[in-house]
Amino acid sequence: ETGVTQSPTHLIKTRGQQVTLRCSSQSGHNTVSWYQQALGQGPQFIFQYYREEENGRGNFPPRFSGLQFPNYSSELNVNALELDDSALYLCASSFGDRGPGANVLTFGAGSRLTVL
Amino acid sequence: AQTVTQSQPEMSVQEAETVTLSCTYDTSESDYYLFWYKQPPSRQMILVIRQEAYKQQNATENRFSVNFQKAAKSFSLKISDSQLGDAAMYFCARSGSARQLTFGSGTQLTVLP
After folding, report:
1. For residues A75 and A27, is the Cβ–Cβ distance under 8 A?
2. What is the predicted pLDDT for the residue at A100?
3. Which residues of B touch A102 (CB under 8 A)?
4. Interface contact flag, A109 B33, Cβ < 8 Å
């Protein structure tokens, strides 16, 4: 069974630019969640996608947006990048939006974004 | 805000010894899950152990066990027979009806040979 894969692993952008991060979910999983982890801190929930619909959102502005595709892979888009957006972005997949399976998240290794 | 607190930013343990990492949380829900995740330098978050709040029995996974005190909203992780490979950042996390994880700030565990 394949795990969660994320791309790119590292990238550098300048303030004001836009970025797209990609995530392939684990085989059999249909739910994808995105987390932002600033240096030295715990991950913060950005949003979750279930069956191609946003299914919950954390305290992040609208310039953070996402997509989920029919194959359950997902993208995280961030517009108008700010210096504080520099962080590790983690994608996690799970099965379903409720029940025990929904609580078992498999994480990818993340995409490290640096904004200059 | 419903928070998760890890009061120990750093801990160290001698190889083969036992160490306990602390975690407290806040929630108004009666049905929730608690987790300990390990994040090594490779960055990938790895699930160590999971506890359903409605279960009174403490979860155990090999050398890892928890002490779940629901009334006190406390969820500590005990690592027995510590190994060099246990060195990592450990995060306590909680999920509820929203199915999103709320993480603590982490405890950096060093294992001394």
Report:
1. no
2. 57
3. 99
4. no
